[in-house]
Amino acid sequence: MIKIQIPATSANLGAGFDALGLALSFYNYAEMEENDRIDISSTDGLDVPCDENNLIYKSVKDLYDVCGKTLKGLTLKQTSNIPMTRGLGSSSACIIAGLVGANTMLGNPLTKDDLVDLAAQIEGHPDNTAPALLGGIVTAVFDGKKVHWVKQEVYTKLKFVALIPDFELKTEKARACLPKEISHKDAVYNLSRAALFSASLLTGKFENLRTAVHDRLHQPYRMELIPNCREVFDIAYNHGAYGVYISGAGPTVMAIVDEENTYFGGKTKFSLDNAGLTGWQVKELYIDNIGTQLI
Ligand code: HSE
Question: What is the domain class of 2-153+290-294 according to CATH?
Answer without folding.
Answer: alpha beta
